[in-house]
Every structure is written in C-alpha cells, then in structure tokens.
## 1
Amino acid sequence: MKKMITPFITLLLCTLGLIARQQEPNRKQYTLVIHGGAGTIVKTAMTSAKEAAYEEVLTKALQTGYHILQEGGAALDAVEATIHVLEDSPLFNAAKGAVFTNNGRNELDASIMDGRTLNAGAVAGVTNIRNPITAARAVMEKSEHVMLSGKGAENFAQQVGVTLVDPSYFYTQDRWDALQRALKKDSTAAGENVDNRQAAKAGTVNRDDKFGTVGCVALDQQGNLAAGTSTGGMTNKKFGRIGDSPVIGAGTYANNESVAVSCTGWGEFYIRHVVAHDIAALMSYKQLSVEEAAAAVMAKVANAGGDGGLIALDKAGNMAMPFNTEGMYRGAVDRHGNIEVKIYKD
Amino acid sequence: MKKMITPFITLLLCTLGLIARQQEPNRKQYTLVIHGGAGTIVKTAMTSAKEAAYEEVLTKALQTGYHILQEGGAALDAVEATIHVLEDSPLFNAAKGAVFTNNGRNELDASIMDGRTLNAGAVAGVTNIRNPITAARAVMEKSEHVMLSGKGAENFAQQVGVTLVDPSYFYTQDRWDALQRALKKDSTAAGENVDNRQAAKAGTVNRDDKFGTVGCVALDQQGNLAAGTSTGGMTNKKFGRIGDSPVIGAGTYANNESVAVSCTGWGEFYIRHVVAHDIAALMSYKQLSVEEAAAAVMAKVANAGGDGGLIALDKAGNMAMPFNTEGMYRGAVDRHGNIEVKIYKD
C-alpha cells in the first residue's frame, strides 16, 4: 500500500507546486508603470524640494492612470491620460518641459501602440502640439498611417482637432539655459563638421542631453496591454534627428500576447537593438520572463556602449523597470492601487 | 563482434548525415539578393519591351554587387552600389523614379544596416539627395545618429559631401501622371478629412500607390551581412508620412548572427509587425530557417490585411523572397555568379 501512496503524494505535491507557481500569490500584479527618463540623477545633486516635486507629479500620473483602469477603462486611455500628466509638467523632457534643438526650437516626438490590435501611431518633429501622445493616438485612429512627421503631422493634427499651442508654450528657462550651455560647449569643440561619434566618445557631447523621455505601459481589466512614449528629444539636437521614442519596435511596443514596453535613454542604441520588440520576441519565442527579457536586452544595449532604461509590463501583471544609469524617474501601481515611486537605484 | 560494429556504423552514418546536412551540397549559396518593389504586376499589363527594361536594370544591379563581393569587397559596399543602380533608374520608386507627394514633391526615404556592428543609418523625407542610400550610410558613419529627417538631413548630407541635385532631377512624366490620377480620385472621394483607413477599405485609396521600394541584402566573403532599402514613398503622400523603409527593424535589418532583410509593401503593416527584426528573432530564438521565418512573418502581415514582400539572406547564403502580391521585381546571384531575375509568381 505504501508503494502506491508515495507516488500519489508526490504527484499531489507537484500539482500543488505548479498551481502555486502559476498563481504566484506572493508576486504583486501591476496594472500601470511609468518612467520620466533615465540619466545622471544622483541624490547629492538633488534638493529635497525638487525630489518632492518629481515624486508629486509621478504619483499624480500613476493615480490618473489607475483611476481609469479601476473604472474598467481601456489600457490605451490610461496610457494617454497618464502621459498627459507627465507631458504637462515642466519637470520632464516631453511637451511642456521639452529641451531645445540647436536652432532654439522644441521638436517633439511621441508614439503609442495598442497591444490588442497591434495598431500604432507616431509623430516626429512636431512643434505646436500641446500633447504629442494625443497626436500619435490620432494618427493611429484617424489615419491609415503609423508615422507622420514635421509640418505634415501638424497639419494632420489640426485637421482632426488635436489641441495646438503657440510654440512659445514650450519655453522653460531651465531648458533654454541648458541649450546655451550646450551651444557654448559646441563652439569650444571641433565645430559642426566633427564626427559626432568621436565627440561622444571624447565626452564633448553631453550624454545626459539625450535623456528625460516619459513613458507609460498599462494592463486593463480586459487583459489588454498598451504602451506610449513622449519626448522632447535631445538638447542642441541638429539635422532633424529622430530618436527611438516615435519608432515602433525601438522605443515603444505592445502586444497582448507578451508585453508592453516603453524606453528611455540614448535613442540610437535603442533603434539599432530594436529594444522594445526584442523584449517581446524573447518572451514569445524563448519563454523568458519579463524580468529576464528586459535584463537581457538592456545588457545588449550596455555592451554596445548605450545607456538608459525601460519599463515593461506583461500580460500577467509582472513588470520590470531596469536602467543602467545613475537613476530613472519611475513608478508603478498594483491592482490594489498601491503606488511605488522611485528616483535612484534601489 | 557484430555487436560492436553496428553502433560504429550507426555513428558513422549519423556523422556523415550531419556533414551532408551542414554543407547542403544541393542548396545554392547566394551572396546578394535584390527587390524592386511588390505590387499589382501582372504579365497581361506588361509589354515585352518594358519587361526587358526591368530585367536589364535588375541584372545590372546584381552584376554590380556581385563584382564587389567577388573582389573581396564588403557587404555594405555591395549593398550601397547595387542600390545606386536601382535608384538611378526611372523604373523603380526610389530616387530618380520616385513618386510624387500630394503637393507635387518627391520625398525620399532610405536606410542601411551593417550586420557586423549593428550600426545603422537612415534618412526620411529628403528632397535633393541624388542617392538617399548614400546619405543613410553617411548618417551611420559620419554622425552619432541613426535617423535624420527633412531639411536637417539635407543639411547634414551637404556638410559631409553627399551629392545633391536640384529637386527637378526627380521629375518623371509617368510618376507625375500617376499623381494627377490620384489627385483626381481624391477630389471625387470624401476629401481630406476622411478617415483614410475607411478609404483604404473602400478602395478609394489606390493600394498600389504604396509600392515600388528597392532593396538589397548581401553576404560577403568575410561572412558579414548588410541590408539597405530606398524608396520614394507613396503617390499622393500627405502629412509627412514616414513608411517602413527608413525604420530600422521594420523595413531594414541586418545581424551577422542571423539574417539581412529588406522589405517592400504596405509600410504601415511592416512597421506594426516590426517585420525585418521579427524574422531575425524567429531565426535566433526559435531556430527557424530563413524560409520558415520569412514565411511566418509574411503570414502575420497578410493576416492583418497588409501586402507586399521582402528579401532575406542568412549567414549561410540561404535566401527567401516571399511576397503576397501579384508580382515582385526581384533577383539573386549565387556565389558562382549565376544570376536569377524574376517579376511574376513562379
């Protein structure tokens, strides 16, 4: 009799183990994750007032998105509304707080993706749209296109009723001063004909001028994932540079079958490594967890010399927010409404 | 004794089988593959003179690339030189033969990627660069950026010595007439405020106006892969639309570890499905062959309602050139210099 009971008990224990592993009762289920950019964010350079200001906006953004999800709203709506809060704050390099290009303009990029349909929309290099994430959503929903750029994107936004502002709306003293410092550095560097790759290596290009993008990923009660990213690009940007933020697959990706991702960092590395889609591919094709996939792809970026971070949220509510810079403004809310906000490394 | 010989023979046969499989002696090893766009290309609508003209340029393009590779040149050089031949021909929708935008301009996009380093470069919406693929390569090699757009990209190209032309260089009667037909169709349609997605479904947007991109993938004697794509976009294009051609991961991708890919077709679907990178991911993460991966991703595009084609060449010289349209201008050359050129379905 004992011989029969032993395998039965073993089977029972295995089954219970599997159930426990599937439910992972000790693991939090997140519904919305945000970032406000990665970079040289160190505690010694921060005042407690500034810290509190960042934490306040990050918290408000998370509450906004959570409220929509709790009411049964769509992940896409939560992503858009959450990013509005970050775009409307002068603290982040997106919309209101966007950095200045070399010629003293604010050129904004944004993209959004619906994990349910794989529909996506993006705008690049727009100068008079108050909330670029809303313009990106309009491209997705009201055109047959995915990516619109420059004046054409602005004309489209106007035609479909997206709120426009005078470009002066994006003026902030801090960002203007940052441009003046960058221009001064430029004039003491080798001039415009320099190989900027060399300049970056030599440290004459300020790597931190690239950071500050905002992003959001969300999972709604219907199991739909969505992702969005919005940025002012890099200080002293030239030549109509487009970074990873408006590039679907690089800075933004969402697929209900796997994960929603939004990136921030040195955009060129994120484009070359197709970061957001690579995380989804590792999860779908190699069954990696969201933490494993995010870590693996961040390692590729780091090995190539790039830095930054990302947020990722899978279809089960597991999330990752890795970064290889000193800090990343970030936060998450679980399905019970518990909010976590962080700035520095753990 | 027999007992010892049998496993020995089995092992020997297995080893020989493995060697045969690795060498695949009956399988051609390709070094360079090109496309000149996919679309409604049917034999009944083609004259033999037109057919011969297409075949002549495709053959010349393949010979140009093959010559470079045979001499020990780099895949990247072969891709650039091959695409020059296609860009300089008025037959294809790239550079010289580019279609016109809604406002009567020619706006060109191109990208290139080096599978050895994962470096990449792209230009979007340029109007005065004779060979956009060369501008894309200049972005990759002479800037710290990946993607430059519009006037800024043109200024960069001028600074680094890329050949500029007067925009009138891109005027061809055929393309101008195509725009006039599209504009006429527009004025009889619901006007600019229409939901273009509905218009596409209703057939009031000519799907074929999206096609005609050129591309090339190459494998050099050092085992390096490279990919490039160049396009004039879509006839009657509005709003500064950016398609998949200048988007790394969507229209172009190369990675020595797996494959080089260049796409042509309804760009929006190629962006949403991150087509070029998805093929590489299926090969790297699921060990699919290039044919299997290309077919799987083309099926995703088709299931979503998109059409077009692509070319893919793996690190062993295996290639695929699937398409789900009536035809695709395409060709390949193997390592012995044998050239294949095709237009219609097999």
Note: Chain A is about 40% helix and 20% strand.
## 2
Amino acid sequence: MSKSGSEPAPTKELVTAYLKEVKTKVDACIFDFLPDTHEQQDVHQLYQMMLDYPRREGKGLRPALCLLICEAFGGDAERAVNTAAALELLQNWLLIHDDIEDGSELRRGEPCLHQKHGIPMAINVGDALHCKMWEMLHRNTKILGHNLAFQILSEFIQLSNQVVEGQHIELSWVRNNQWNLNEKDYWTMCIQKTAWYTCITPCRVGAIIGGASTEEADAFIEIGKSLGIAFQIQDDVLNLIGDVGRYGKEIAGDISEGKRTLVLIHLFNSCTPPEAQYVIDIMAQPRADKTEADVLGVLKLMEKYNSIQYAQKCSKTLLKEAAEHFTQKFDHLPNNQAKHLFLSLINFFVEREY
Amino acid sequence: MSKSGSEPAPTKELVTAYLKEVKTKVDACIFDFLPDTHEQQDVHQLYQMMLDYPRREGKGLRPALCLLICEAFGGDAERAVNTAAALELLQNWLLIHDDIEDGSELRRGEPCLHQKHGIPMAINVGDALHCKMWEMLHRNTKILGHNLAFQILSEFIQLSNQVVEGQHIELSWVRNNQWNLNEKDYWTMCIQKTAWYTCITPCRVGAIIGGASTEEADAFIEIGKSLGIAFQIQDDVLNLIGDVGRYGKEIAGDISEGKRTLVLIHLFNSCTPPEAQYVIDIMAQPRADKTEADVLGVLKLMEKYNSIQYAQKCSKTLLKEAAEHFTQKFDHLPNNQAKHLFLSLINFFVEREY
C-alpha cells in the first residue's frame, strides 16, 4: 500500500533494512553497557533478568526515529546512538512495570518477567533498568558535552513526567471501573502514555542532537502526538486481530485485561444499551473469570459495528496529518534521504503487522 | 547513655533539634518542588499519592548526614539542601516499592501505599517519585554548576546500582526459601541495600559539595558501611521490640514477612536443630497463614538465646568503629561544631527508639 502513495518514499524493504541496521547498532551499545556477569550468584541472576526484555526481539522504532531525525537535520547519527539506546532502556523498564500493572501474560512472544520470577523481583528488575537509563544518559557528557547532555536529560525528565501521568490515568479507569469515556479522554491518555515516549521525545532528542533550533524541536510535539496516537491505535488493532506469532502478545489480551481502546469507545458509541451493558459486564470481570466465549462475544460486537475498521481509519488519518505536518514544516532540511526514510518509517507505524 | 561517652558531644536534645531544623528545610524544598494540584482529576490524584509518603513523619536522617558533613568540610549547607531533598525522594520511592515487594502493611504508622490504592497504582507512584528524584538532581546545575551537578548525579547512579542489587539479594533469599545464611551474607546484603543510601552516599555527597577531596569522600565508604549496618540492625531490633506508635510499623512484622535479620541468623547459630526447623517452618509460611502464636513462638526463642541482645551489641560495636574511624580520619577538619553533632547524630542511629 505504501507504494501507491505520491511521496517519493523508499520501499518497505528499505525501512526494514534500516530498522535492522539501527537495531544492530543500538543493541551493541546496550549489551556493551549492561553488566552481564557477577561473581556473586544472586547478583549475576539479577543481571540476567535485566537482560531478558532487551534480548527479546523488539522493533527498535524509537531509536530509528531518533537517529533518522538527527540525520535529517544534518547531524551525525553516531552521536545519537547512546541516547537512542537510553530510549530502548526506557521502553524496557516501562514494559516490565506495565506488564505487572496490567496483569499481562506474554511480551514479545515469551511470558512476562513477573510471570517468570514473581512480582517482587520484576518490580526491582524494572527499577534496576530504570536506574541504568539515567546512567546511560549521564554518559552523554562524554559524547555530547555537558550542555547538550543536560538538555537531553531534561527531555527525558519531561517525558518521564508525561508517561507516569498517562499510566495513572489508565490505571484509574480500571480501578474506578470507569467506562463512560469519550475519544478525547482516550487521546489525552494516549498522548501522555504512548506518544511522548514513542514519538515526541525520540524525534525531539534526535533533532536536538542534530542541531535543530528550539522551535524546530517543538514542532515534533504536534507531529509526535498524531503519530503516537496512530501507533497506539494500530497496537490496539493488532491486539485484536494480529497473529500471535508475529505480534508476540496473547490475541485479544486487551479484552481479557479490560483495556479502554478507541475500538471499544467506538463500540460503546454505536451499540445498543443492552449490548453495552453486556460488554461492560464482561470487560469489568477479573481476568481469571473471563472465558474464551466472553472474549469472542465482545470481539463479535466490535466486528458487527465495524469498530476495528473505524479505528484503522482514524489511525491512517492521523498518520497522514503527521506526514503532512512534517513535510510542510521541514521543507528546508538538507538531508532528503533521511527525510524520505522518515516518511516511510512512519507509514510502517500503521501498516505493521507486529 | 550518650552522655557517658568521652566525646565532647552535644546532648541528645541538640541532635533532635538539629534533625527538626533540617527536616523543616528539606521538607520545604520537597513540597515546593513536587506538584500538588492539577486541573485533571486523575492527575491530581496521582500528585496526592506522590505526596503521601513524603508527608508522613520521617526522621530525615539522610538529609541531616548530608548537610552536617557538608558543613564539617566548611561548605555552605544551603547549597546541599536540594541534594538532601533528593535523598528523601529516593527513600520514598524505594519504600513504596519495597513495601510492595515485602508485602508490608504499615509504614510510618499508616497503611502502605499499595494497601490503600492497590499494587498497580503504587508501582506507578513509586516510578513517578523516582523520576522526580532525577529531576531534582538535574536542578543542581543551577545551584552547583554543571561539573558538580554531574558528579552528584554519578553518586546517585552508583548508589542506585548498589541498592537494586542489595534488594535483589534479599528477594532471592525469600524466593529460594534460603535460610542457611551466615553473618557475612547479611553484611553484604545490608551494605548494598541499606548502607549505601542511608549513610555512604549522604555523607559522600555532603562531603563533595563541601569541597572534600576524592580521597576524603572515599573514606565515607568504610565509615558508612559500619554505620549503615549498625542502623539496619537497630531497625531489625526495633521491629521486634519497638513501640508500634513510635516505630510506625507492625511489631514483629519482619517475622510475619519472613525477613532474614542478624537476630535470626544468631538464633539459627544458637538453637537446636529441631528448634531451627520449627522457626523455618513458621518463617517460610505465607504471611496470611501465620498466627500470632507462631510469631510469638519465634520471638520467645530469640529471647531464650539472647539473639536480640547479641544484635544490639554488634550494632554498638559497629557504631564505635564508625565513630573512631571518622574521628581519626577527619582530625584536620575545620568545623568542630558540625563534627561533634555528626558524632552525636550517629549515636542516635543505634539509640533511637523509632
């Protein structure tokens, strides 16, 4: 589908190759940085647990955004690798804690960390990786100098504040058994919980390292919001209709976990009151009490009202907005190759199947 | 008791007054820094949860160590207040996560955060405070300049690595149902889990801000180890024989939680094999299955073998070592008032009743 666009974008294969190239670089940085052996057996075990999620197959989208935008501004992507690796560490500690908070079962095709080692250890492993993220950012002094390193730290601080707020909003909905949500509620949560760390900050730090002005870096707030929501919607869709082997999480796990998604909000806005009550009764049950038939019942209603298609359409519209905004705003940027790759990469955000 | 020492130390009242003075300053810094209102109700609730532990009555020992040592080196304690406040934020996010990991019930006289709001939210509140700690340290640039601010960040990174390792060691013992521990195992865990963040780093950052040399700051590693273990042992003792109103946790909660303490290790080294088996059978049970009689049974054996007295003796010896080491090493320091107050303060570490 991406081939039919009017943009002179490289093919999907180029994006895949680029993602792979970035992943190799960033992984090397991470595995060189994280400790992996210790003479004391307990501590050795902690180090292995810290390596567990980073070793699982991730897509490396955030580092790719960071490096591409750095290059688009004419910067040396090598100088941004350490920061891109910190984005991956962020993602990993967030996922460990998020998986506990949501009571998830699978992550990247394997049992979640707390399923393997219990909640207490998993909380601590997440904390350990969280600390390592700041350590990695501290290393930027040597790579970028004091001023720039401090600026990047600021960006991560801003991002952290956003992500814990977004997370709290979502957890509140679960705890308060709140279902009367509108699309605006979803956007707000989604921007804070997902868009900041998935799109806004990766682009901003890439831009800053690449030499962008404050005003240029700020443009990525709006671009990243659209892109981040588009990404999250596609994630919600894949959760419902994806292939477990590629997607790596249990299919329809969001229904089991009672997650509020755009698909669900559309369903509530479309179905009859008795149907809505039926859905709420199922969604609000504890995970363990839900049967396969319950989950299928909700899925069927989502199909009946075309809620999944609606979400996919929204995702595509948001992506288009982000791409147009980027193209318009950064017409003057020197590196066309990186710019075009960026546009192809963000297409992948909504066309991906995993 | 402290009055009988040969040191010309100020009285206990002076220590209490000093702790209060520091707490006022550091609390002002924290409550000025942490957000407390937000127009969005969910986020407002998160902010209130983040303020919960900081608002509970803590002793403020770590900030006091930091400011006193800064002054002892002739530094301006006002420049160290922000860093001292970061030590308090550290303590608070650690406690929130630690309380979940240990399945604790009370903290500073009130139900633990996860008892009030559930584990998912409490994990996230801990993360939110953790992020705020780094933000607070980032502010040091304006107070201390880039170089010193980065040095203090380094200290917190080193400390964080220690504390998650120590925590993992302790959690491993629980998860592996491991009871054949010796005193050395306990020291190792205790140094990493407690001594670094309670004593070593507070003294080190105070010294660094006060202008100490690297060699002088390094001396606080050994001093802080002794002091930190002494502190932890007293904590273990108070947990068994303290007054719940003053101590703020459930009495003998460590037995309910199956904690490995020096008292327990001494008991295992002293009692008969059947008694040891009796103790293990009780300690290894899930908390909910333990009766009051079980807990009392273990307590009685600890009394029978003078295990609590043994631990108290150890704590006093360690304190004496720390005080001697400090006096000997820092004979040349200018600020005698701060030095003497430091010696009185560390006496309080083992003489405190809360």
Note: The first helix of chain A runs from residue 12 to 33.
